[in-house]
Amino acid sequence: MDISTTLAGVKMRSPFGVSPHNLDKAWFPGSKAAELYMKYINAGAGFIYVPAIVPGEPTEWEKKLDFRSLFENQQYVGRWLKVKEGNAVIAHIYTAKNLFNYYSWAEELIRTLRRRGLPEDVPIIVQGLVHSGNPEDWENHIRKLSELEPDLIELNTGCPVGMMGVIDARKLPPEAKWGMAMGAAPEVLFPVMRAAVKATDIPVGFKLTPEAGYPRMLYIAEEAAKIGLKYVVTTHKYLAIAPPDIWNGGRPLYPALDANCPGDIGGPALRFSMYKATAMISLNIPQIECFAGGGITRPEHVVEAIMLGARACQTLTGIVLNGIKFITEVNKFLESYMEKCGYSKLDDFRGIALKYIKPTHDVVFPYYVAEVDESRCIKCGKCGESYCPAIELVSDPENRAKRRPVITPELCSCCGMCAVICPVDAIKYVPRN
């Protein structure tokens, strides 16, 4: 099976790899970071990201790895918060300050990777970020990043870190519209895009911010394609506020932090936002390619994104929850899945689910009825304790201590709520007699 793909005309040996992520520690120099990246490559990653490269050079206390000065100057400081529902991790919230990298770091990382034998079909994606809305500043920065000879350049117009530094974004000055704020401000974003395309012959893409919203994301993707950008990253991390500790006077839940700072929310909960952006852009703006990511934690999720039009997929959540071996597992699953389904290449099933996305007005809702599978029902009563008028709980003749659900067909509209409630999937929908 051929699981290779292309993004903006650049070949990738696999459609799957790791999302851009800062290593969160200034004490990871480029050569040290290369050790981690080589683990990604050896696990089968289809691409490598060099994230959040900003103009300038590291300070002396950054070079010396002076931890006390690093924290006193509030550089490379971040905090994670686990969000759980029962035993399941449904998301994570992250807040940070100044998590960026410099050209010299990127140069050292890329040089080390190439010296260690980076495969030709594992492209390097360099992600640029400028703390300015001035197109000329971006043009100069992208021209400088081109000297690294990456295969693709990405505009980080979705970084949430800048927005973490304010509470009332209405008061952001125009020059502060960078990262996530810039991505939601077309009047600042589009001139920057034009400057970036002008600065290089290397294919350029951009990271979509969820704060742009829908349908504005379509307008932004369409204009980006007209400007000459080749792909859009549909990773959908949005700004969030963590819940307060209700048993401790509303104090924050962040570890080792005495405030509830704005943060970005990631994790499994993001997957459906990613599907929305990938599908809607693929359907409506086919002239720009989709690079999907957000909430991918199982190999099947990669197939689903490709069926919705993605050229390639990226994850961080999948690595956090499953380890680096997740990359290998995804590639093996793709090969096995394609063999089982009779697909020889990704294009055989890329986008095939888009034809089933239709507005509700164009779809016939069958006149079905809910039916209880008695062999599966555990008679917990949850379906009948909700608000459905069609379900009644009656005494179970075999066990008087329990009540079984009975559905009145004349009152059932087949809304699907009872199936959502049922913990053992004992309710199905069948045609009416």
Question: Per CATH, what is the topology of the largest domain?
Answer: TIM Barrel
Write down how many β-strands occur, each being a DSSP E stretch of 2 or more residues.
19
**Helical proportion?**
25-40%
Measured by DSSP, the beta-strand proportion falls in: 15-25%
Helix and strand layout, with pairings?
Layout: E1 5-7, E2 10-12, E3 16-18, H1 30-43, E4 48-54, H2 60-63, H3 67-72, E5 77-85, E6 88-97, E7 101-102, H4 103-115, E8 124-128, H5 135-146, E9 152-155, H6 180-183, H7 186-199, E10 204-207, H8 216-227, E11 231-233, E12 238-240, E13 263-266, H9 271-284, E14 289-293, H10 299-307, E15 312-315, H11 317-322, H12 325-341, E16 368-372, E17 391-396, E18 399-407, H13 417-421, E19 427-431
Parallel strand pairs: 3-15, 4-7, 4-8, 8-9, 9-10, 10-11, 11-14, 14-15
Antiparallel strand pairs: 1-2, 5-6, 6-13, 12-13, 16-19, 17-18
Helix pairs in contact: 1-4, 5-7, 7-8, 10-12
3D architecture notes:
This protein is α/β, with parallel strands linked by helices and 433 residues long. The chain folds into two domains: 5-356, Aldolase class I (TIM Barrel, Alpha-Beta Barrel), CATH 3.20.20; 364-431, Alpha-Beta Plaits (2-Layer Sandwich), CATH 3.30.70.20. Helices cover 30% and strands 22% of the residues. It has helices spanning 30-43, 60-63, 67-72, 103-115, 135-146, 180-183, 186-199, 216-227, 271-284, 299-307, 317-322, 325-341, 417-421; strands spanning 5-7, 10-12, 16-18, 48-54, 77-85, 88-97, 101-102, 124-128, 152-155, 204-207, 231-233, 238-240, 263-266, 289-293, 312-315, 368-372, 391-396, 399-407, 427-431. It has a nine-stranded parallel beta sheet with strand order 3-15-14-11-10-9-8-4-7. It is globular, with a radius of gyration of 25 Å.
